[in-house]
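Pilot study result, target chain (431 residues):
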Amino acid sequence: MNARDLLRLVVNNLGRMKGRVAMTAIGVVIGTAAVMVLISLAGGMRESALRDLSSIGSLTDINVYPRQALAIFGAPTTGREGVLDDRTLAEFRKLPGVVAVIPKEPLNAPAMLRYGRLIGGTQIVGIDPAQIDYLDFSMASGAARLGSGQVIAGAQVAENFFDPQGRRVFQAPDLSGQALQLVLTRVTEDGQQVERTVRLRVAGVLEKKGDSDDYTLFMSLQEVLELNGWSTGRRVNPARDGYSQALVKVARSDQVTAVEREILQKGFYAYSAHSVLQQINSFFLVIQGVLGGIGAIALLVAAFGIANTMLMSIYERTKEIGLMKAIGATNRDVMSVFLAESGSIGLLGGVGGVLLGILLNGVINIVARTYLMAQAARSGTVPDTLPSLVHTPFWLPLFAILFATGVGVLSGLYPATRAASLNPIAALRYE
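Predicted structure:
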């Protein structure tokens, strides 16, 4: 029996029991649609999490901290913590794949920024001016330069300024090339409050990145160390005490895991956007598997419906099966007919389920967006756009159709085997 004859026979046989095929296929439609919707919802959650990941940093960056510095936040210690000094940084630079190691030191003194009649505050971080090219700064205006008394402002630093007199500022000032005053405060041993004013010039303003750099004011590392020493009343010595943190730049993202592992083994705390991305992917793969399995239960129920339909078909077509065998049809030919019929029911249900799943995904997305926009409107913050809450992977529709077809074929195995095992003489006498 060639493929054309088999196809013609399957179409004719299914056409004789349209109602039963339709009712059976509906079960497959529901199961396939459930798989589509549940996996798409998990995909939407994953995409949302990955969008939020953009605030963590580049996939080739590793942020390194001494474990002792994070102990106050509950970070575990191992008893072999190291000091993030120049010697340690030199060891990091020798690791395979590392292209730069940049020490960073935040300003720890109480400080306030002044710009004209405006005041504000922001995170101030010291970096080595000689390594600024490795930070891949994209400038909205000005230059990426950190000379004496110069700073580089993040894209949204200007938004932190306000008028202490109560007059509203409707537009954030353009800080590029502007002079700022950094007012630091410390309390002496006898309880006296002392202020120090440092004049700064904004060399440039960064383009908006969507991460913490947008709210950071970058200064020369040596200047920040000197200001921290003034605040504490003692000279800061990174060669002895180490730095508060460092940024390790790796050439390729596939090298990050190995470098991060080496740093952790040396007794430091390290995290990277790449490792977070791997954890998120692993977590949501499990979620997709669980939700897909829940949807597959409906397909399993539909499988029994297909098997029942094919068994009923055997009883109705017993004489027909006997006649096929009498004129030369082999057991393989009979099995092929029944497997093709059950697979066709699965295929029809799979296609219908995919179309229904796509429709339901669209409806869910519209309803959810409408609800979220209404909630945002009540809070007074209406976003321009909202991301899609469902995400259908490109492979999912094809997988769902093939899976439904496979379920149909497997469901027809027992009926097909039973039909093929019929004795042709007994089948022809069957009433």
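One observation from the pilot: The CA atoms of residues 149 and 397 lie 59 Å apart. A full batch analysis is planned for the follow-on phase.
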